[in-house]
Inverse folding.
């Protein structure tokens, strides 16, 4: 008897017409074979898909260079297709699902000719977790298949979990001809399906990641009473050995991976890593919020990663437990056959190819690695891996952090008055844009509620309402905080040292969560009393640190206008409670 899974795969093969169909088992031996295929047979243009790097200095490392037009998520080509346009909201591009499927079927007809279709059964979440979801993705490039082995739990357990069920999540992926004009990343939440063609890059192609675990999963969570969030999950161990678990939502390229592996600048404190990008949050029987990381890998920003900023990440990249580690669009040191990116070392190597494969000429001043160049490494290689990583129930969360990249205005840290006010802090988040998405003016301020603007698979007004509903169901909710590592001084320099010193802020947060310290009440929220922040050993004048908490009323005037304009887009979908919070804040700041 043919199972629904086999039937679906067969339909995809009949449409895409690959030369071969290959079912992946997710094993190491298979990954080694696929890397060989990527080095010897498959190409992007004339470049082999993979290149082996120096196995002595960078064990298990392989390099991939993508098409130069295909180096980041493409939000303008990303669509959510529900029959009712109103449901997807102004935060998503919309196309009618029938029309979208017709268009995609035409583009996909024969798109895998001459190629292999890799079939990848996988789960997001531990296969034993009640919160995990069983999925399958097909793709026509070894790069995606090897990445998915690192990022998800692929193979037998997933096949068993799917069995003869119909409700598995379907992902169709083809690089097509990599023509940006024929590139679409389309979501069909009512069919549990993602259809992506024309891109081989990260969030566009590894469909278990943003496409399923956030856009489709947020929609599932809305209907099933849970949350799918763009959040890191970590445990903070204090000097007494007590571990407090928190999550933090920060927009793309704003510090999640760094936070997840932070090397504490305060003696006695230690960070345990559970996830660096996505958290699924469920309400436990005890009325607390529990987090699981649906992923198993770290697809992180390379530039800026070094032994100084993030030593645990570098140790993870050189870890040998789980094979392999991939580098995408970094530069390559041609003398040593090693990956390199800005920030890895103070002086760039003598001879390099830049991310496009051209000889790098330092006199031209251009960056050698792409600003959104990335590594893919298994979380199991992390020296800070939490022992709770495979706990099917997840970990209980004591605090939720919302943060953004704001050079002005937003204080270093602040606590919400209560859950509802905390949700408001999330909804009014803004961040200066980064290179993680293409086609944007990097550095421009955009509102990015809960760091989910590009990833919420339905109307964000309804999503805010959903957050409020979840709060009502939690008898023991986490406290909510806002943070900002990125405030600058008059010379445009970051005031806060960040990275390992962020533990000082986390310490205050867990001290609050454990009711050890008080606060000062301000119109914005609860701010720390300076005496409770451990700044010991920091070589920064008190006066300068104080500026991290300045409230500048005239800056807030334009901020409030911008928030109002943003909220208005959601019309009747915007919860009244959020407008009440808005007016309360405007009133406190003396604005209308
Ligand atoms: P995505 O993978 O795109 O979701 O990004 P992310 O949120 O995981 O960001 P990541 O930790 O990779 O950091 C992105 C950039 O921010 C890197 O260039 C880091 O060096 C920089 N960064 C991270 N933490 C800090 C910090 O505390 N202070 C400053 N100034 N920069 C930081
Ligand atoms: C992000 O942009 O938030 C990422 C990278 O984590 S991607 O997988 O491309 O979404
Ligand atoms: Mn991310």
């Amino acid at each position: 008897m043919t199972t629904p899974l086999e039937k679906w795969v067969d339909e995809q093969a009949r449409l895409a017409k690959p030369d071969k169909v290959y079912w992946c088992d997710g094993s190491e031996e298979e990954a080694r074979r696929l890397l060989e295929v990527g080095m010897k047979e498959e190409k992007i243009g004339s470049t082999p898909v993979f290149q082996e790097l120096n196995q002595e200095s960078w064990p298990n490392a392989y390099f991939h260079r993508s098409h130069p037009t295909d180096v980041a998520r493409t939000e303008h080509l990303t669509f959510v297709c529900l029959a009712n346009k109103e449901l997807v909201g102004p935060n998503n591009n919309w196309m009618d699902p029938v029309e979208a499927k017709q268009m995609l079927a035409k583009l996909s007809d024969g798109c895998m000719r001459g190629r292999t279709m890799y079939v990848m059964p996988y789960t997001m979440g531990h296969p034993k977790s009640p919160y995990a979801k069983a999925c399958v993705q097909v793709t026509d490039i070894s790069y995606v298949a090897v990445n998915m082995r690192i990022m998800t739990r692929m193979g037998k357990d997933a096949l068993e979990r799917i069995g003869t069920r119909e409700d598995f999540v379907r992902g169709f992926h083809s690089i097509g001809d990599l023509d940006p004009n024929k590139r679409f990343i389309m979501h069909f939440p009512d069919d549990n399906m993602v259809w992506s063609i024309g891109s081989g890059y990260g969030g566009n192609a590894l469909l278990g990641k943003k496409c399923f675990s956030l856009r489709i999963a947020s929609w599932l969570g809305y209907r099933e009473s849970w949350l799918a969030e763009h959040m890191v999950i970590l445990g903070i161990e204090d000097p007494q050995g007590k571990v407090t678990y928190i999550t933090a939502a920060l927009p793309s390229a704003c510090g999640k991976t760094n936070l997840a592996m932070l090397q504490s600048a305060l003696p006695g404190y230690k960070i345990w890593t559970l996830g660096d990008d996505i958290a699924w949050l469920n309400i436990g029987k005890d009325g607390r919020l529990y987090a699981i990381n649906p992923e198993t890998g770290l697809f992180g920003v390379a530039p800026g990663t070094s032994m100084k900023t993030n030593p645990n990440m570098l140790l993870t990249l050189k870890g040998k437990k789980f094979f392999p580690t991939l580098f995408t669009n970094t530069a390559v040191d041609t003398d040593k056959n090693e990956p390199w990116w800005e920030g890895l070392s103070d002086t760039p190597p003598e001879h390099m190819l830049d991310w496009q494969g051209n000889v790098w000429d330092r006199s031209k001043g251009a960056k050698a690695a792409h600003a959104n160049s990335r590594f893919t490494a298994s979380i199991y290689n992390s020296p800070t891996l939490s022992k709770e990583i495979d706990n099917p129930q997840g970990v209980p969360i004591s605090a939720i952090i919302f943060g953004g990249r704001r050079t002005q205005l937003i204080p270093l840290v602040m606590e919400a008055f209560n859950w509802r006010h905390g949700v408001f802090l999330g909804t009014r988040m803004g961040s200066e844009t980064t290179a993680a998405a293409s086609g944007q003016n990097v550095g421009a301020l955009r509102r990015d509620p809960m760091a989910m603007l590009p990833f919420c698979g339905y109307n964000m007004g309804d999503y805010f309402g959903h957050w409020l509903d979840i709060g009502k169901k939690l008898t023991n909710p986490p406290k909510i905080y806002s943070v900002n590592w990125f405030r600058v001084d008059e010379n445009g320099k970051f005031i806060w040292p960040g990275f390992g010193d962020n533990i000082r802020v986390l310490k205050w947060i867990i001290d609050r969560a454990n009711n050890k310290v008080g606060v000062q009440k301000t119109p914005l929220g609860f701010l720390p009393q300076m005496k409770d922040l451990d700044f010991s050993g920091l070589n920064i004048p008190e006066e300068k640190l104080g500026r991290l908490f300045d409230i500048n009323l005239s800056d807030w005037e334009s901020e409030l206008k911008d928030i109002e304009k943003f909220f208005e887009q959601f019309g009747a979908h915007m919860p009244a409670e959020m407008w009440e919070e808005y007016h309360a804040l405007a009133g406190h700041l003396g604005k209308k």
